[in-house]
Amino acid sequence: MERLHEPGPEERFLQTPGSRREKLYRQMRLIRRFEERLLRQFDEGDVSGTTHACIGQEADAVGVINHLRRGDVVFSNHRCHGHFLAFSDEPKLLAAEVLGRRSGVVGGRGGSQHICWESFYSNGIQGGIVPVSVGMALAEKFSGRQAMATVFLGDGTFGEGVIYEAFNMASLWSAPILFVVENNRWAQSTPVEKELAGDMVARATSFDIEAGQIASTDAEELYDHFQPLVAGVRESGRPRLEVIDTYRLCHHSKSDDKRPRQEVEEHRKDDPLPKLRARLDDSAAETIDEEVEERIEAAFSWALEQPMANDEELVDPLVEAAP
Length: 323
Prior knowledge:
The chain is of the alpha/beta class.
């Protein structure tokens, strides 16, 4: 099916009323409350396996994804909930997926890390998503649809050699792709200074890829920062890498967190939600909080009522058709 282009840099904002500031806050609040509820369901035994939250990094998702157009490709990683919700605004489908229900995004088979919905994809294999996203960007380029790709990766991914092969091909073949590096300073339990030599920006520029860096957890600042960068990739058809210095306020996954408690508490002062909420009228903020709470409750209540994915229904059509 041919993808359509709908003009306008703020087209994703057209879905809901309110000012830009209110819309950014509404999106971040939805992501935050979804993950807090998800972690509660995990504690209650409703989530199998593991789950990775992006609490503290919500501004990255809304600051970047709201500049993308219908048909643009987005690749995410194991910490994908915020990116998906900013892209889709579908908490019900994501809740059902993570809870292993047949009504989920991919029938309850992908869980917390493996999502495929329209032109959004995520995978838990660090680094492995990067060359795939470059390939998708090139496919869009050759199709003539004027779409681009965006891939979110972390500082820990710079230890994977395959991303440098991807950088090389993206630059040589002029892939329209934006590499967004969410540098939250920790690769699971290892601080960035103990696992990464050199400079992330310099690694990109060595492949003739334009690159920059911003230290911010401010959704409005990130929104303004990424507007010309996304437009630049789209217009030039060339790759771009941008590092966001951010911080994860929750554990890596489940309850594994070996970071110094004082460090985490210090970074809570830069929590993106209260930072933006303080700029809103109190009544508007309260209304948004109530609306989001109702949506989250409805999403998880609906998801918990859905039937579980059944292994017996997972039939490989190629195997079934084999003589």
